[in-house]
Amino acid sequence: MRKLTYFVACTIDGFIGDPKGDATSTYSYVMGEYLEFLKTEYPETVAAPAWPVLGIEPGTPHRHYDTVIQGLGSYRIGLDAGVTSPYAHLREYVATRSLIESPDPNVELIADDLVGRVRELKAEDGGLGIWLCGGSTIAGELIEEIDELVIKTYPQVYGSGMPMFGAGFEPRDFTLGAVRAFDNGVLVRTYTRKR
Ligand SMILES: NC(=O)c1ccc[n+]([C@@H]2O[C@H](COP(=O)([O-])OP(=O)(O)OC[C@H]3O[C@@H](n4cnc5c(N)ncnc54)[C@H](OP(=O)(O)O)[C@@H]3O)[C@@H](O)[C@H]2O)c1
């Protein structure tokens, strides 16, 4: 059984971006000790075009994930900039009902039964975990399938914005695992879903 992990960046008040999802205000925190942590502990979550820029060697082993799932709203950001396979080093899945043909051979589109397809991926033997990249909409749709959260909290408050989950109200319990605090105020917490 493979884990589905929502590895996501958010503000102190739990927003993954402004009301449209833009989180560029947090980028200035991706530096120093925290950036080194991301490069060594989660290199596979760095978009492929940024590997050479950040000095991540080609072929750097993945630590946690071999598969990524994102919604079209998230995938479209790269696509509009001409990046058809932002995580070319991973198996890439994009949930969409409007995009009919995949723009890239590495990207498989999921149009029907998103939950069922994710359950099939989770049921595969071996391999690493599945990274749920976001955004808010598909995280809300997959909320009951999420086994783990890795939340990168940036020391900013938005007041309003795009929530971590586009889901209805229901308390769901998680167990706190690793906690890492960085000198620039970023906090990375891992939680496991209590079943
Ligand atoms: N802070 C972070 O770490 C982080 C991470 C990821 C994304 N984000 C932000 O999140 C924003 C995007 O979030 P979002 O909520 O607007 O969009 P999203 O969740 O990325 O994508 C939503 C789209 O996914 C498709 N979809 C949703 N449910 C589906 C289902 N059951 N079956 C098939 N397709 C389905 C639909 O595409 P169709 O319309 O084609 O049907 C829907 O419009 C971006 O601005 C991005 O920057 C932030």
Automatic annotation (TrEMBL):
Gene3D superfamilies: Dihydrofolate Reductase, subunit A
Superkingdom of origin organism: Bacteria
Protein name: Dihydrofolate reductase family protein
